[in-house]
């Protein structure tokens, strides 16, 4: 869904500019709009990876593989 991707993009900008806490809110919102939003799952995985929460990061990376196994 386009709306979920746009919300995830806003979060991505925040995340890569150092505001990880607020970025996560946007990623969560994107996933609430569309649980199949590949970019949101990837970015949440990156968030959790940076937080050293490997289990949560891997859950989101695995979801990416489920959504788009060819990517």
Question: Which helices and strands occur, and which strands form pairs?
Answer:
Elements: H1 2-16, H2 20-33, H3 38-50, H4 54-67
Helix pairs in contact: 1-2, 1-3, 2-3, 3-4
Major beta sheet, specifics?
none
Give a count of the beta strands, DSSP E runs of length 2 or more: 0
Shape: globular
**Structure annotation, total helices:** 4
Strand content: under 5%
Reported by name, the CATH topology is: Serine Threonine Protein Phosphatase 5, Tetratricopeptide repeat
Helix content: over 70%
Classified by CATH, the class is Mainly Alpha
Number of domains: 1
CATH superfamily: Tetratricopeptide repeat domain
Mean pLDDT: 97
CATH architecture grouping? Alpha Horseshoe
Gap between N and C termini: 18 Å
Low-confidence stretches: none
Roughly how many Å is the radius of gyration?
11 Å
Element order, helices and strands?
HHHH
The helix/strand class is: mainly alpha
Characterise the protein shown here.
By secondary structure, the protein is mainly α. Helix content is 79%, strand content 0%. It has a single domain (2-67), classed as Serine Threonine Protein Phosphatase 5, Tetratricopeptide repeat. The protein has helices spanning 2-16, 20-33, 38-50, 54-67. It is globular. It starts with a helix and ends with a helix. The mean pLDDT is 97.
């Amino acid at each position: 869904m386009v709306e979920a991707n746009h919300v995830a993009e806003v979060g991505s900008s925040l995340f890569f500019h150092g505001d990880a806490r607020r970025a996560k809110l946007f990623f969560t919102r994107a996933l609430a709009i569309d649980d199949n939003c590949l970019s949101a799952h990837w970015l949440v995985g990156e968030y959790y990876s940076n937080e050293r929460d490997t289990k949560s990061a891997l859950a989101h990376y695995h979801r990416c593989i489920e959504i788009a196994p060819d990517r």
